[in-house]
Amino acid sequence: MTDKPTAAAGQVPEGRRSQPAAGDVTLPAQAVPAAPAEPRAAPEPRASGAAPGSGDLTDELLRSDQWTDAMVQAAGIPITDAPFVSIGGGIGSFVTVDYLRIAGVAPNRIAVLSNIGYPWQTYEYLTRVSQIPRSERIRSDSASRPDNIWGFPSYALAEAVSERTFAPLWQVLVEPIWADFYTPKAGRVFAGLERESKRIGYPQMLVKGQVRMVRKRAGGGYFVILTPMAGSAPTKRVAYRAEFVHLAVGYPGLKFLPELQDFRTRHQDYHHIVNAYEDHEHIYETARTKHLVVMLRGGGVVASRVLQRLMDDRAAYGLSTDIVHVFRTYVAGSHGPNAWNRRKGGNGFAYQGFNYPKSVWGGQLKAKMRKLEGEERAKAYKLMGGTNTPWRRRWQAQLKEGREAGWYRTMSGTVDQMRLDHGQIVSMVTTPSGTAEVAADFVIDCTGLEADISEHRVLADLLGHSGVGRNPLGRLDVERTFELRGSGSGQGVMYASGATTLGGYFPGVDTFLGLQVAAQEIADDLARRGFCPRIGTYRSIQQWFRWARNKQP
Amino acid sequence: MLPTLAGRIQTRLVLLALVGGLVTLLIGPLLPATAPLSVVYRNMFLVLAAVAVIGIGWECVYHFLMQWRWEKDWPQLFGFLTCVPEGLLIWYLLRAGAIPGIEGTVAASVFVPDFLAVWVAVWLLASGPMRVVNIRWRFFGGRLV
After folding, report:
1. What CATH number belongs to A258-332+388-445?
2. Inter-chain residue contact A343 with B129, CB threshold 8 Å
3. Mean predicted confidence (pLDDT) in B87-96
4. DSSP string over A332-363
5. Is the ipTM beyond the 0.90 threshold?
């Protein structure tokens, strides 16, 4: 789903979210789930650059696949050397830099280029608006600690010690048979990230600004062009000259179902139809003042969290909110091609502990996927794919109550048309048994974030100029070491990790532990190339004690 | 645990040898045995070897059972409770004199504490501290090489 271009035809569209830049009121200016367009900048013309010496990108630079030092200097763009540059500055950059610092890389050899102030900023924003405040639990394993490369002590152990209770330990002992999978509270995760961030000196490595592009450098390495914060530098652009570049830019932005996007644009209404990853507190506030009918689209964990919020508020405030939940794919029971590949499901949802089957993070599935290529790999991804949500006893009880009382209804189908009728949104839902009209006061789209990599400017540029390709699922093609295939430049190497690399040899990329798996592969590859020491047994134990004592690596 | 077959077997063999060996060494003198310490050690290390060797077969059984799980994980509790069937089998073999090299008979009061101590020590180590010793172990299905 691509957004309607706001720029004039023939120009490169700046926006990557499926909503017009002018209607940018629902996402806060600071924390955005994208690498958004430069604020209020005019869309960049395709091949006409700035004048030489102006400190901006010249024609020559825009057109050339490989840059020389002289070309960059001629443009008047100042160059800073940084052997290792990480682009993104979110959790992906953080865990990779964490690994390198623990491996022994000094902070002055690393630069993190980012448009956010701290690594968990975007993640915290997205979890908060999709109804996981700091006091609630995220969907992540006990030993998946982005602030601790060893995953020991696990979150369960840490919670048991700090809260002086055996309950978390009991839960991880009997999970998932006699208890739901233990997951940490969001607040604990963020507090841990903050501690580790200070410990490794992350703020000193951070450079704030908007990364414009990465190009290969003649003679090896890369140039990374950064647009610094307005007023913080004498020129419009600065260049970082790096031997190794790491990309962890995350999701470009929100995605809307086509009919919802169409409705929003036609009626210029961003209030009644929202994406769960936008701030939509107004819906819950309105629910407390009058009877509402809320329609939900999507069957994943976000839908579950929104449902929980609606149901919790119902119980707490004695509300009469009605919920209509439309599933495109209604899962009625266990599903799968054979007995050895059967996932649980019911009442519309597919149930799975975490975003992927657990063995992708180190077991059987990880080993299997590592050997597959092309079509076979795509098929394996499809087999484990499909939206799913965790089984949580509390949610099951709430939903059962809702179904029995009649205020929670599910439907299987797709929506072709939507119209406004007396202040309500009426949807034509095409179900297996015919078409039905459903009227709702609000529609919450819980179907996820934008996924196409070419919607991201830096990635689109790499695809076009630097020999980077797509994997069987259409995202960035990376090696088992997370090296971006085709991007080698002399001794220099580019790596990528996170959501933009889904479809490669490692399935669990857009997760905490997945980012650490990638970081470990990258650190090991850099060690092979002589950039840093390899983390062996001695260093690991020594560094763990330093972590425990909160001493810098 | 997220094991692969190769990883399970490697982890079992290495941990039983190193941790199991150390624990057996340490609690040997504390066991209520009537035989001299050297005999106790000989017997208990033979039992340890039996657990390791027969354990390879057990790991294949667990791997097979794990295929019925969608997540392809081996829950913590399973890793602990399997001490019961494994222990029972070893005990039966001891009683039947089927473990070569055992001197005299091994009393239950000697076998049970030693077996459990080794099992718990290995299980606890694999549940957490192992990740500090080897940062790649958990991402490669338990493989050490």
Report:
1. 3.50.50.60
2. no
3. 96
4. -S-B-SSTTS-B-EETBEEB-SSSS-GGGGTS
5. yes
